[in-house]
Amino acid sequence: MSSRSAQPGGRAEAGVLAVGQARTGSTRLPGKVLADVGGVTALELMLDRLRRATESDEIVVATSSEPSDDIVARVAERAGATAVRGPLEDVLGRFSLALRQHPAEAIVRLTADCPLVDPEIADAVVRRWRDGEEEYVSNVDEPRTFPDGLDVEVVSRSALEASAGEATSPYEREHVTAFVRARPERFPRAVLELEPDYGSVRITLDTADDLELIRRIVRAAGADAGFNDVLAFLGFGPAVIRVPPP
Fold first, then answer.
1. Domain membership flag for residue 42
2. What is the pLDDT of residues 83-110, one digit of tens each?
């Protein structure tokens, strides 16, 4: 699924691993990653959409080793992704395990509560990482301009390994990129923006209302709808991805 397009001097040949985190546990909407969205689960929808991205080499799903997440592993593998299983609360540990089992020079972090992840956006973030020297590239830094639910983060192998080896707080172990994001002087970053700013728009999956909205979007715009199709359904005008120069 990879298509190398970095500029000379960048990371054109660097392997990139897409890692989607998913588990059945959720405080507000238990089992949300397995909720039906247009005939497939939310997890399968995310994986199907991500498969159209061209800048990543492989997709894995990082879930827990708890028996309750056996079904997550089965759904992931049914959808053509490899399941990597690790500690329930130590999500950073799961990502580190995924990187050890599937070596790459960077990981793309995605979450199954973002089933409408857009392959065009994912590719844009990865290409920006390839073209530069930053350790962390994303579209989520505050003040965010992308809708909540189109989140994509790319973290270099060295930065993720440092995080896994040094992070000690429960927050940093649960939130994979927290250690890197808190240390911009150590881990240089680049941020993509959306113009106009749609940072207040919400298309993530966290509540029953969110689930109904995502179902409506899929019914009306289609399972493969691009982010501008989604914005149009919500009544907004088109937007353009702005990529900072390397």
1. yes
2. 999 999 999 999 999 999 999 999 999 9
In a domain, 51, yes or no: yes
In a domain, residue 54? The reply is yes
At position 159, the amino acid (one-letter code) is: A
Tokens of 147: 């809708």
CATH of the domain at 205: 3.90.550.10
Sign of the Cα pseudo-torsion (40, 207, 200, 148, in order): negative
The amino acid at residue 243 is V
Token pair recorded at residue 52? 């159209």
Range of the domain at 166: 16-242
Q: How are beta strands 106-111 and 153-156 bridged, if at all?
A: antiparallel
Task: Give the 3-state secondary structure of residue 129.
Answer: helix
Q: Is residue 139 within 8 Å of 193, Cβ to Cβ? A: yes
Residue type, 220: A
- The answer to whether residue 9 sits within a structural domain is no
Would the CA dihedral through 193, 195, 199, 203 be positive or negative? negative
Structure token digits, residue 146: 């992308």
Residue at 178: amino acid letter: A
DSSP H helical segments within the chain, as ranges?
42-50, 70-78, 91-101, 119-131, 157-166, 170-174, 178-181, 208-221, 227-233
Instruction: Please give the average per-residue pLDDT across 70-89, as a whole number.
Output: 96
User: For the chain, what is the domain count?
Assistant: 1
- The rounded distance, in Å, linking the Cα atoms of 185 and 63 is 31
Burial of 74 (0-12, 13-18, 19+ CB in 10 A): exposed
pLDDT in tens, 158-193: 999 999 999 999 999 999 999 999 999 999 999 999
